[in-house]
């Protein structure tokens, strides 16, 4: 299944969860189920292996969902994934669902590549500045990339802000070649 199909399933779950005012609990429990399946070989095998009957999968996953206190909507959604043979795509669906919830709550995921590690104080200051620039709450992830030489590259949604020395040198090279 491609990301488009995962997006359709996640969007359908999102819309229903939003109607039932269950976004936060469904997001949390969906993430827990996805992590449990990822972490436990037996569960992973159950979800991926066609030799297990769908009813057996539904029973085991319903028990797991009950154990962690999943809302009824999520239980029905997991049953649907089993019925449509889409359990294998649960990680992608979980990721897209989280993105949709964040968008609805005004949170922007921002990834920043820097040449050298930032202190906690520098990260906090950068986060505040990005929130002011983007005018949204920011979920910030900072990666260190020494190949940048200096500066940083900011990825916010589909926007890229390249303030790295490497990027500036490449831009200068393009201008000189013209």
Layout of helices and strands, plus pairs?
Elements: H1 3-19, H2 23-39, H3 41-48, H4 54-67, H5 72-83, H6 90-104, E1 107-114, H7 120-134, E2 137-144, E3 152-156, E4 159-162, H8 165-177
Helix pairs in contact: 1-6, 2-3, 2-6, 4-5
Write a concise keyword list for the protein shown above.
single chain; 178 residues; alpha+beta; Peroxidase, domain 1; Glutaredoxin
CATH fold-level topology of the largest domain = Peroxidase, domain 1
N→C terminal distance: 44 Å
CATH class division of the largest domain: Mainly Alpha
Encode the helix/strand succession as letters.
HHHHHHEHEEEH
Structure explained in plain terms:
By secondary structure, the chain is α+β, with helices and mostly antiparallel strands. It folds into 2 domains: 3-103, N-terminal domain of the delta subunit of the F1F0-ATP synthase (Peroxidase, domain 1); 107-177, Glutaredoxin. The chain is built from 8 helices and 4 strands. The protein has helices at residues 3-19, 23-39, 41-48, 54-67, 72-83, 90-104, 120-134, 165-177, and strands spanning 107-114, 137-144, 152-156, 159-162. It has a 4-stranded mixed sheet with strand order 2-1-3-4. Helix 1 packs across helix 6, helix 2 (23-39) packs antiparallel against helix 6 and helix 4 (54-67) runs antiparallel to helix 5. The mean pLDDT is 91.
């Amino acid at each position: 299944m491609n990301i488009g199909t995962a997006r359709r399933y996640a969007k359908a779950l999102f819309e229903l969860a939003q109607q039932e005012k269950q976004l936060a609990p469904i997001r949390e429990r969906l993430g827990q189920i996805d992590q449990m399946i990822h972490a436990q070989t037996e569960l992973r095998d159950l979800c991926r292996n066609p030799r297990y009957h769908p009813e057996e999968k539904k029973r085991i996953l319903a028990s797991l969902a009950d154990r962690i206190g999943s809302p009824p909507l999520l239980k029905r959604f997991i049953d649907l994934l089993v019925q449509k043979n889409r359990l294998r795509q649960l990680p992608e669906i979980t990721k897209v669902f989280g993105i949709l919830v964040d968008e609805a709550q005004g949170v922007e995921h921002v990834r920043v590549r820097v040449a050298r590690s930032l202190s906690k104080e520098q990260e906090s200051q950068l986060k505040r500045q990005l929130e002011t620039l983007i005018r949204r709450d920011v979920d910030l992830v900072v990666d260190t990339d020494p190949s940048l030489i200096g500066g940083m590259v900011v990825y916010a949604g589909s926007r890229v802000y390249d303030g790295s020395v490497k990027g500036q040198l490449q831009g200068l090279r393009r201008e000189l070649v013209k």
